[in-house]
Amino acid sequence: MPARRVLTLSHVTFEDLGTFESPLRTRGLEIESLNASQTTFPLPQADSCDLLIVLGGPIGVYDHVEYPFLKEEIALISRRIEAQKPILGICLGAQLMAAALGSRVYPGKRGAEIGWSPLQPAYNSNPPAWFAPLLAPGISVFHWHGDTFDLPHGTLHLAKTELYDQQAFTLGNNALALQFHPEVTAEGLESWYVGHACELHHANISPINLRSAAIQHSAALEKASVAFFNQWLDAIL
């Protein structure tokens, strides 16, 4: 019997699978990782893999003139969603999913959301049981985004924060979009502080403070994220 396969599309090398890699490998899933900006589309393996994961990055969905591959990436995501095959989008990946579903993606009016804060359940929402670990008391997740989006039609809104309402949505169990970063580790974030140093400087955000918060919150997030991810994988695979 052929091994089940995961295709991961990244946009910068340091925004990777993080804590999600181990649960995938424990299940015997083969992982293929591609940089979307250096990939030739279309990707046949994106249609045939058992799970497609689209990770984050520092560009915007609307930057398709400067980064033409974004249009092809959105088309790929759209085909995946229409086929009702499992897909997970994180941060930019979530925004690309929203665009693929016909929603507007745009700069947030309340500025960049960078740092640690808890999720809140969406208004009048009944999240699936697999999402519960991320809403548990005492859990803060990591945010790093300046853009937001309108909730796509027909999706279930899962979570919000004080700054932005659109933090997570799902279309059935198969298509899941997370604006925040559940996959990060304190160690892995060290590369983020360097890779996004210019953004932190212009936002007047100290990596020292981010590092201190990561030490405080990352262990609990890792436990909650692995529990959530395993339960979601149980539901889709």
Question: Could you give the topology of this structure?
Answer:
Layout: E1 5-10, H1 21-26, E2 30-35, H2 44-48, E3 51-54, H3 69-82, E4 87-90, H4 92-100, E5 105-107, E6 113-117, E7 120-121, E8 141-145, E9 147-149, E10 156-160, E11 168-171, E12 175-178, H5 186-195, H6 197-202, H7 207-236
Parallel strand pairs: 1-2, 1-3, 3-4, 4-12
Antiparallel strand pairs: 5-9, 6-8, 7-10, 10-11, 11-12
Give a structural overview.
With 237 residues, the protein is α/β, with parallel strands linked by helices. It has a single domain (5-236), classed as Class I glutamine amidotransferase (GATase) domain (Rossmann fold, 3-Layer(aba) Sandwich). It is 34% helix and 22% strand. The protein has 7 helices and 12 strands. The chain has helices at 21-26, 44-48, 69-82, 92-100, 186-195, 197-202, 207-236; strands at 5-10, 30-35, 51-54, 87-90, 105-107, 113-117, 120-121, 141-145, 147-149, 156-160, 168-171, 175-178. Strands 2-1-3-4-12-11-10-7 form an 8-stranded mixed beta sheet. A hairpin with a 3-residue loop joins strand 11 and strand 12 (175-178). The radius of gyration is 17 Å and the shape is globular. 38% of the residues are buried. The mean pLDDT is 97.
